[in-house]
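Example (one chain per record):
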Amino acid sequence: MAEKFNYSSFKEWLQCTPAELQRQKVDASVLLVSLFLAFSHSNKHATPEMAGKFEDYCRTVAKCTPSVDGGVELKDAYACFFMEPLMHVASVVAGLLAQEVIKAITKRDPPMMNTVCFNAHTSCALVERIPLPPKAPVKRKAEEVADLLD
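Predicted structure:
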């Protein structure tokens, strides 16, 4: 029997606020990307020189300052968003994509969740599901249901 997997759309991912991500206890690197996207959305022309405004945005609006492994300060992490893509990051992402294609063709393994964040400083790829799926209703035991019917 075929399994069916449901994933959130990219639009739903973007609508997930940094506060929601903190409640989900996602990794700090994923939270940093979310904060950058939210900051860029509120400041249409974000530039590398706006690192101070980004720090203020994190402290005042989002009320968090994520600390990512390998990064020194938040303003240094912000500057990384404006760098050209690094070759080793591209090769890791391409390898993950190839792995997912093989999974889809062979239908042997479940697919990866919808978010992968690669930290080039620690060479670590983190997989998160954003936003979390809705909670399934709690199932009752058979005897409890039988008692209700009597």
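Caption: Residues 10-132 form one domain.
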